Amino acid sequence: MTVKEETDVRMFIQMYKEEISLILSSIANERRLEILLIIYKTPAEFNEIQKVIRLGKTALSHHLRNLADNGLIKKSHRGIYEISQDGISMLDAISAGFGKTQKRKELEALQKANAIRRIYTKENLSQMQENEIKIVKLSSMRVASVRAISSSPENDAWAKIEPWAIEKGLLDDLKKHPLFGFNNPNPEPGKKEYGYEFWIKVDDKIDSDDIIKVKEFIGGLYAVRSCKLNSIGNSWLLLKKWVENSKYQIGEHQWLEKAVNPGTAEDELILDLYFPIKETE
After folding, report:
1. What pTM was computed for the model?
2. Distance in angstroms (rounded) separating the CA atoms of residues 162 and 220
3. 75-96: per-residue pLDDT in tens?
4. Cα–Cα separations (whole angstroms), residue 225 to 206, 231, 271
5. Rounded to an integer, what distance in angstroms lies between the CA atom of residue 176 and that of residue 85?
6. So where are the chain's domains?
7. Does domain 122-279 have CATH number 3.40.120.10?
8. Which CATH architecture has domain 3-100?
């Protein structure tokens, strides 16, 4: 927008600020917006609107009168309510304006994140072979790292990285931006506090800031097993036992837990456990 356009906008709103305020106050109500949407395409009688919106006669009459007084709807002599051209214009303007806002982008990112969380359910895991072990080679990658040390560091570290990752759009595609975690430092007997660190793969455009630290991960070979959160300890032991009886040796690179459905309820959380291995020399 040019300086002239900005000036024109300010002058226009200043000139009609009272009228604009009245219209905005009229539609700044969830019920009245719902009424406009009900009759957006098809005009309706009072009782038809009432059946959909489920309001009492007095309350509905109040909302209809408010919308009519501000020119957003009109009532025919047959008692049928229809949206006015002004009402259509206002809904179109709201849709177009809100569609460009950062708030809308954040809401969509949250919706996508929630959809990711629902990809796997208890039924999904039961269909997977929980005792299946796969050999996976992770390539080197650039990762954004967040760590917390507390009595519940997984939750605290996630609370830091989730909003940051959503803002960056990283949770939109967990195949492109896989999310990993691991204890750092490990729990110790008699101590309530320990550490947990999250990694999420990023590109060269992202650098360290006040929230995250960017690191270079060299990658490596892994034995991988899926499990539910409540069986994680036993799953790590089974992986260790499998490696000790396999043709592989225990590797020295970072062991990892990959969140399949990050941020979900604990009883639905599924993890891929990455046990570091190397070829027998």
Report:
1. 0.56
2. 26
3. 987 889 999 999 999 998 888 8
4. 30, 11, 8
5. 45
6. 3-100, 122-279
7. no
8. Orthogonal Bundle (1.10)
* Token pair listed for 33: 């917006």
Helix 17-27 vs helix 30-38: crossing angle, to nearest 10: 80
What residues have CB less than 8 Å from 68, skipping those under 6 apart?
74, 75
Residue positions counted in the chain: 281
User: Percent of the chain scored above 90 by pLDDT?
Assistant: 51
For residue 210, what are the contacts with CB-CB under 8 A and spacing of at least 6?
A: none
Six-digit token string for 255: 């062991």
* pLDDT tens-digit series, residues 94-152: 888 888 888 877 777 766 665 555 444 444 444 444 458 999 999 999 999 999 999 99
The four Cα atoms 198, 203, 206, 209 give a dihedral, to 10 degrees, of: 20
Do residues 153 and 191 lie in contact, with contact meaning Cβ atoms separated by under 8 Å? no
**Who contacts 206 (Cβ-Cβ below 8 Å, separation ≥6)?**
142, 144, 168, 212, 214
Task: Measure the CA–CA gap between 251 and 229, rounded to whole angstroms.
Answer: 24
Q: Under a CB-based contact definition with an 8 Å cutoff, are residues 189 and 150 in contact?
A: no
